[in-house]
Amino acid sequence: KRLRERDDEQTKKKFKAKPVSHESDRSKLSVEELRKRSRHVYLKSRKEKKIDELEQELADEDYLFRGVKLTEREEEDIKLKRIALKLAREHDRAQQMENVDRYHMPTGKSDETSKNDRYREDNRYSDAKANGQSGQNFEQRKWEDEVIHTALPHFGSLDKDAISKQPKYDYILDEEIQFVQQLTIPGINEFLQQKEKSKLQEHDDENKRKYRTLLESRKTLPIYKFREDLMSAIRDHQVLIIEGETGSGKT
């Protein structure tokens, strides 16, 4: 009886120790995941800070050393800094474009169960980009290619002779242009030219009429009868004082 109780006690201790060990492993995994996430956030903020510092440093050097003769070593350092800043900006833009091209549909699954699904989705988009199957309106171009492929006749290996017997057609764009030109009404160009010429003549007549009206209104001003004397005075004297009522035509 005592031996049986001792064995039962040891068995209970073993069963109690297993959940504690499993819980410890889970806590270790969660701590490791949190450490990776924290590291990722820190590196992202540090990269942005370093890019801002490099950009500010180049701006200060351009302001301080403007018009100053620099040594070859100093010019090389500034050149390397500009190249590094350019590469960093291009890297950020590439990441932004990659995020725009990708879209992950929420599945509602846990990280462990959806890991394989995400892997397949990532390879799908990566393969498409590697083969040049990306860019603007890619889905529309893909659909158009499929429709054209379906509409065209296709032959198997047993019908190779039928392929050579197919009539070959060229583009008929040139013939269509000539066909449209043949339907053009004779004399339409001369009519349009005459119509445009009439519009220009009417515009000229309107300008001449306005000019004659302006001349007639000038002649009605009180100072117009002194126009010749005034022009002679302006020509002979550098400084001239004119006194007259408002609206008399001094200007």
UniProtKB/TrEMBL annotation:
<dbReference type="GO" id="GO:0016787">
    <property type="term" value="F:hydrolase activity"/>
</dbReference>
<feature type="compositionally biased region" description="Basic and acidic residues">
    <location>
        <begin position="20"/>
        <end position="31"/>
    </location>
</feature>
<feature type="region of interest" description="Disordered">
    <location>
        <begin position="90"/>
        <end position="120"/>
    </location>
</feature>
<keyword id="KW-0378">Hydrolase</keyword>
<keyword id="KW-0067">ATP-binding</keyword>
<dbReference type="GO" id="GO:0004386">
    <property type="term" value="F:helicase activity"/>
</dbReference>
<dbReference type="GO" id="GO:0003723">
    <property type="term" value="F:RNA binding"/>
</dbReference>
<feature type="region of interest" description="Disordered">
    <location>
        <begin position="1"/>
        <end position="31"/>
    </location>
</feature>
<protein>
    <recommendedName>
        <fullName>Pre-mRNA-splicing factor ATP-dependent RNA helicase DHX16</fullName>
    </recommendedName>
</protein>
<keyword id="KW-0347">Helicase</keyword>
<dbReference type="GO" id="GO:0005524">
    <property type="term" value="F:ATP binding"/>
</dbReference>
<dbReference type="InterPro" id="IPR027417">
    <property type="entry name" value="P-loop_NTPase"/>
</dbReference>
<feature type="compositionally biased region" description="Basic and acidic residues">
    <location>
        <begin position="1"/>
        <end position="12"/>
    </location>
</feature>
<keyword id="KW-0547">Nucleotide-binding</keyword>
